[in-house]
Amino acid sequence: MNDPQQRNPLALTRRTMVEGCAAAVGAAGFGWPGHAVAAPAPGDPAPQTMPVRLTVNGQARDLELDTRTTLLDALREHLGLTGTKKGCDHGQCGACTVLVEGRRINACLTLAAMHDGDAITTIEGLAEGDALHPVQAAFIAHDGFQCGYCTPGQICSAVGMLREAKAGWPSHVSAQIAEPLVLEAALAEPEIRERMSGNICRCSAYPNIVAAIRDAADI
């Protein structure tokens, strides 16, 4: 029997396939013979840094940070406070929620340099010694988590949200709210779901999260 290559010069074999791919990669990486290869682009300029003092969980921390460092990366990478999670890194999931001067924010959407001198509370700073924060205790009592990845952000967000509600801040679904807000009467399930809508639980533990927050609101 004749060699397949002799019968059909265009027949594709494993060897010719490998050789062809290698030639294509070589041409892409090093240029065709006789053609100059483009010089690599110059490197990025040295980053600009600045001193930043963050008061985190009651302790002043002095850092020298790239001005582009987010608050989330400052907490996780520079201070080792990994309880605050990096989820989407686009401000859409709420896993990175912390409290800055008592108000909840997404740490991935703000630069650390913008909070020089601010008081920041992370999930690690909510408890007082061995005594859990009421919201933490309620999440445990109501099994308000499954994988737990979103839980620190859920808890920090709930703490900030309860403060907002107590101060009389209405939400999109609120009826006429008098000030001060009566938490037990006003924080029904639709209110809690609306106010916590920036925090996503991919395990869908929402019924237990809502129950935990209602429980904590009653304390």
TrEMBL record:
<dbReference type="InterPro" id="IPR002888">
    <property type="entry name" value="2Fe-2S-bd"/>
</dbReference>
<keyword id="KW-0408">Iron</keyword>
<dbReference type="InterPro" id="IPR036884">
    <property type="entry name" value="2Fe-2S-bd_dom_sf"/>
</dbReference>
<keyword id="KW-0001">2Fe-2S</keyword>
<keyword id="KW-0411">Iron-sulfur</keyword>
<dbReference type="InterPro" id="IPR001041">
    <property type="entry name" value="2Fe-2S_ferredoxin-type"/>
</dbReference>
<dbReference type="Pfam" id="PF00111">
    <property type="entry name" value="Fer2"/>
</dbReference>
<feature type="domain" description="2Fe-2S ferredoxin-type">
    <location>
        <begin position="50"/>
        <end position="126"/>
    </location>
</feature>
<dbReference type="InterPro" id="IPR052914">
    <property type="entry name" value="Aldehyde_Oxdr_Iron-Sulfur"/>
</dbReference>
<dbReference type="GO" id="GO:0046872">
    <property type="term" value="F:metal ion binding"/>
</dbReference>
<dbReference type="Pfam" id="PF01799">
    <property type="entry name" value="Fer2_2"/>
</dbReference>
<protein>
    <submittedName>
        <fullName>Xanthine dehydrogenase YagT iron-sulfur-binding subunit</fullName>
    </submittedName>
</protein>
<dbReference type="InterPro" id="IPR006058">
    <property type="entry name" value="2Fe2S_fd_BS"/>
</dbReference>
<keyword id="KW-0479">Metal-binding</keyword>
<dbReference type="InterPro" id="IPR036010">
    <property type="entry name" value="2Fe-2S_ferredoxin-like_sf"/>
</dbReference>
<dbReference type="GO" id="GO:0016903">
    <property type="term" value="F:oxidoreductase activity, acting on the aldehyde or oxo group of donors"/>
</dbReference>
<dbReference type="GO" id="GO:0051537">
    <property type="term" value="F:2 iron, 2 sulfur cluster binding"/>
</dbReference>
<keyword id="KW-0560">Oxidoreductase</keyword>
<dbReference type="InterPro" id="IPR012675">
    <property type="entry name" value="Beta-grasp_dom_sf"/>
</dbReference>
<dbReference type="InterPro" id="IPR006311">
    <property type="entry name" value="TAT_signal"/>
</dbReference>
